[in-house]
Amino acid sequence: PLPLLLDCDPGVDDAICLLLALASQEVTVRGVQTTHGNVALTSTTRNALDLLAFMERPDIPVYAGAAAPLIRAPLYAPDIHGAGGLGTVQLPLAGQNVKAEHAVLAFIRQVREQPGQLTVCATGPLTNLALAERLSHGVLRELRALVVMGGSIEAGAPKLGNVTAHAEFNAHADPHALRVVLESGANTVLFGLNLTRQVRVTRERTAALTALGTPAASLSADMLNGYLDLIEQRDQRVGALHDPCTVAWLLRPELFELEPARVQVRLNEDEQLGMTVREDGEPNVQLAVKADEDGVWALLMERLG
Ligand code: BDR
Ligand code: CA
């Protein structure tokens, strides 16, 4: 199986991304590194520990990472993910503890021990990976692949961002870190909102998950129903399964269409902060452009069931 690290801010969809990876034999989760993001670092770390305990995988190490972005002030999303980060779900407190080693140092250590071997799915703000690159130049190039959920590339789209009119949450929450990652030369695959919005979350789908009856499927359905409750209050009728697309691509690449692209992120301190744009020039990512929505859901149902 493919050795995998998850860099995440759980987060309802981060949590489902983790559950999908744990349920899949093609990958082996070597560790979970947490970041500030949907909620504060203490909560994202707590959630990672509790999710692993719930799945009876306390053997998987959790490393706490960056508590704040590189330059901008922290930005959280409790209006989307709930105050605790998992919608309205409250998991039992896990017994195990976070590792003493900082996520950024643990990441550098693991990549240097196994150059070219590790894959990372990064589903939160990219602060940990940017810090790693700055501490240990070239470390991101030594990943087998870096699969990122972030940004939004839709030329002429009526609604580009989800946190501002122009920017996607992970890109906006640490745009400078995204810039470091995009310039790192890593083998990056980018899943922006342009892709993840194709994989919609509906009440019919959460009901089908509930009907599967397994702990992982029921938990996922409960978290997604809480997420739908929250976004409906904000007049967003359709939710999207953002972060699990990264792991789904590792499992079933044929469910997605990718194309080489050059993507850059705006750092101007104005209303476009964190906006991602496609530019001419040497490609720096494989950009995911099309998803087989039913295929991704079928995969999730199969694995969580
Ligand atoms: C991204 O932002 C977060 O709220 C989600 O977990 C996902 O990673 C979508 O823009
Ligand atoms: Ca996330």
From TrEMBL:
Keywords: Glycosidase, Hydrolase. GO terms for molecular function: hydrolase activity. Residues 5-297 form the Inosine/uridine-preferring nucleoside hydrolase domain. InterPro entries: Inosine/uridine_hydrolase_dom (IPR001910), IUNH (IPR023186), Ribo_hydro-like (IPR036452). It holds the Pfam family IU_nuc_hydro. This is Nucleoside hydrolase. It comes from Deinococcus sonorensis.
